[in-house]
Amino acid sequence: MALLGRKLAQALRALEAETAGGPRAELPPDLQQLADLVSRRQERLRPKDEPERELLAAIPDAAGIVGADGAIRVANTALESLSPTGRAAGMTPLEITRSAELGEAVRRALEGTAKRLELEMPGTGRRLVGHITPLLRGEVLLLLRDVTEARRAEQSRRDFVANASHELRTPVAAIRGAAETLLLGALSDGQAARGFVEMIARQAERLARLTSDLLDLSRIESGQWSMQPGPVDVDQALRAACDLLAPAAREKSVELIREALPPALAVKADPRALEQVLVNLLDNAVKYTPPGGRVTLAAARSPEGVVLTVADTGPGVERRHLARVFERFYRADAGRSREQGGTGIGLAIVKHLVQAQGGEVGVESGAGGSRFWVRLPEA
Length: 379
Fold this sequence. Notes:
alpha+beta, Beta-Lactamase, Helix Hairpins, 4 domains, 5-stranded antiparallel sheet, 13 helices, 20% strand
């Protein structure tokens, strides 16, 4: 039937082409009768809700029409994807979303009251904004927009502002207090004055590290840190990172160890980004390793690429914190971290730089210390 309809359409187009610029030619009587018959037959076979389906299909959000009986009569693909069964027609909004609040809103809309609400689908963590609008014939138009990622981003921004403000407030308060004490007369006491000036210098250095890390993280997340990946010799990269952290390790009596590497081992990475990753991981390891401990760097080939590891003999990270250590400003031990002078952003920078180079990063930890690993493609 569909093929015949296409043939008729082709015939009409051919006739119109032949008579372009003049009156339209009439079809032969037998062909015209056949065309009318096909048109009437297709109109009868077309589902009554087909126009509604076409309209809902053009809506990117989950959308459906709820009948007077409270069940969904027509739904688009997005709404069906919310259903645990993959189908929405014949089910109620309550059965699909398991939200009693939405079920009550639909009931009120069937009585003529429009409603807008935000809800969470139990057990899924998905957040939806719903618009429920009464229609003619006692039906309801249901629109559900998934705002899960938007709400998560909003919360992340709020947390970032709150944490950054807190991290900036602490050194600023210390600098202000020391300066006021000096101005109130401590300048005349040479020994006391020196102590306050040293405090100002330490807190100023902390502010400098924090602002530098914030700028680096901002550039990475906005894509302004231009990556230029190429072959990087792993031995040279580890040696350079060790050289930079050697003074800090010696001052704390922490031993830095570079294990023997496979020959001709190279990764595909941006040299500057890889150096930042290794330095941040080493700096973190040295800070949390007690005097007399050791930090070990190693690298090895794996089926997925090259794995670089930084292991320490520090106190380790509790299991409940492992999934969040790469978040901005997240600290497993807030007091100890601030005491060590950390900004809380170093591991977040590591994660973003590694992912920007097509790699992976992770951590394993226990009572004997922590082991951070980075996997990058082999050059």
